[in-house]
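=== Structure Prediction Worksheet ===
Name of assembly: unnamed complex
Input type: mixed (protein and possibly other molecules)
Chain count: two
Listed entries:
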Amino acid sequence: MSGAPLARRLTPAERVRREREVTLLDLVDRLLEGGVAIHGDITLAAADVDLVYVGLRAVIASVDSVGRDLHGPVGAERS
Amino acid sequence: MVYLYAIAELPPAAPGVDGLDGAALRLVTADGLGAVVSDRDGSGAEASAAQLWAHEAVVEEVMAHRPVLPMRFGSTLADDAAVRELLAERHTALVDALDRVRGAVEVGLRAGWEPEAVDDDGSGTAYLMGRLDRDRRAKALADRIEGPLDGLARASRRRLLPGPGALLRSAYLVDRERLDAFRARVEVLDDAIGEAEIICTGPWPPYSFASLGGDS
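=== Predicted Assembly ===
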């Protein structure tokens, strides 16, 4: 057994929301870590990196909350 | 300064979008390759979501018409001469990379799971054994997800994240005409594998497969 079955599958609406959140994470990962890299010519000002990290934390926080909601009590209310 | 979005084979169609901050896009060419660029004050770029999406929109627009290598966000060079120099110096690596991604798109995949908490009875040994066991189960679960997908992809990159929550993060290079079949198989897997939740994103330009192998 590789792990317990998830307590509840995502509803279609939750899935769409989750995919949107993950898409932003994937966008950031790809554009900042992927693509052709010209060594030494990429400059992100310190404040700008904070922007990205703030954005990431906001996304991660919301992704986490989806995770918490998934494993909360059965029948818990969801907005 | 010149901001670079993508490198493509010539001739790319004229993109129907603007670049970052509404700057006009133009093409700098050398040896049958073209870099899609816009002019910019100063080097670098603000990495906000809006700017990232603006960069992405340009790459996707170019990709609709020609094989393309997306540039990393923020790539800037001094002037057109420097761009032409890049295209000439890295010509072989660029052509090889374009061949690798020709006719394909990138699909992102993330899988999450909820492993049982690792027993920590204060004995370091029990904890380590528990962690090893969890890592083994993580790998087995990842293999169950990825085995059926490898056959539908041209290439893949995977990162295993065996902690609680995130399990797997992968990028697949998929022939355009196989994209529907690939996504259908992911849905089947997600339904079939109760222990994991699988989310796909994309299709993306091939950011994860654009490495020139020894960056310039």
